[in-house]
Each structure stands twice: as structure tokens, then as C-alpha cells.
Write a structure and sequence with these properties.
The protein is mostly helical. It has helices at residues 15-34, 41-51, 58-65, 69-81, 103-123, 129-157, and strands spanning 85-89, 97-101. Strands 1-2 form a two-stranded antiparallel ribbon. The protein starts with 14 loop residues before the first helix and ends with a helix.
């Protein structure tokens, strides 16, 4: 089924534009609430991914965040310099460097998570629980479709 018609397509109504705008505005909103707390929204996301076990190394974190490798390395350097993160060589494979939050990083994450969640709840006040659940379900479905497309493309290229 085709959803977009080239003759009636409006960029302002496209999923790409709408998701990009929501993403950008959410970052601005979260960065504003985190200003003065020694941490950016991207750093908070990275720390959440580490705590939740969604990444153990810088390369895994890069993939989990869909983030540029160089920018992520600089961000990890900052987190380490602030004492929020530790890099540790793997005992099984010395080439692998794992990432671990320090006790200070865990405390900072607890402190700022309450702020971020509070702001998200403010922004979502106009949504019912059902609307938010449906939006989340649909976004996950869209992400799954795009990941399937990417896997198919990568399979054809191989």
C-alpha cells in the first residue's frame, strides 16, 4: 500500500520531518532541564544505555545510540574526566575496553533522571495513556520496518 502521493506530498507532513522535529525539540527540552547539572541529554542517554546493559563497549554504545564514533569518543572522554565513567580492559580479551558507570556516575544518573522524567511527563500531559502507548507502539513498528529495510539492503549488497 502506498501512503504518499508525489503530487500531494508535503514535507511538513512527512514522517521523517515530524520525527526529526520531535527529536530535536525533545533534545532542546531535556538539555534545558539539565543545564547546570554537569551533564547533557546525550550524556544522560549514554549513561542510561550503560546502566540498562544495552551497551558494554564504545562501539556497542555507538550502535545503540546511532551516534558518530568520534563524537561519542569525545563524550565518553568528558564523562570519564568528570568521574562519571570508567574504562576497563577486558580480562578475557585485552583488546576490548568495557565502559562502566562509577558510583559518582550512578548518583548523577539518579539525580538527573528524576529531572528528565519530570520534564517528559510535563510535555506529555496532553496525551492520554492510550495515546502514548499507541504512539510508542507505532514508532517501534516504524523502526522495525526501517531496520528490516536496512538488513535487506545490506544483504543485497553483500
Amino acid at each position: 500500500m502506498k501512503y504518499y502521493d508525489p503530487k500531494r506530498f508535503r514535507s511538513q507532513d512527512s514522517l521523517g520531518y515530524l520525527s526529526k522535529m520531535a527529536h530535536s525539540l525533545m533534545h532542546d527540552c531535556a538539555d534545558e532541564i539539565l543545564a547546570g547539572h554537569e551533564i547533557s541529554f546525550m550524556q544522560w542517554i549514554a549513561m542510561r544505555k550503560l546502566r540498562e546493559g544495552l551497551a558494554l563497549t564504545a562501539s556497542e554504545l555507538c550502535r545503540a545510540m546511532s551516534h558518530d564514533n568520534g563524537a561519542l569518543t569525545r563524550m565518553l572522554d568528558q564523562l570519564e574526566a568528570q568521574g562519571f565513567l570508567q574504562r576497563q580492559r577486558s580480562e578475557e580479551d585485552r583488546r576490548v575496553v568495557t565502559l562502566k558507570l562509577t558510583a559518582k556516575g550512578e548518583r548523577k544518573l539518579d539525580e538527573v533522571t528524576a529531572l528528565v522524567v519530570g520534564r517528559l511527563n510535563e510535555v506529555l500531559e496532553n496525551f492520554t495513556r492510550g495515546e502514548l502507548d499507541e504512539l510508542t507502539r507505532l514508532l517501534k513498528k516504524l523502526i522495525g520496518s526501517l531496520q528490516d529495510w536496512r538488513a535487506q539492503r545490506d544483504g543485497e549488497a553483500a
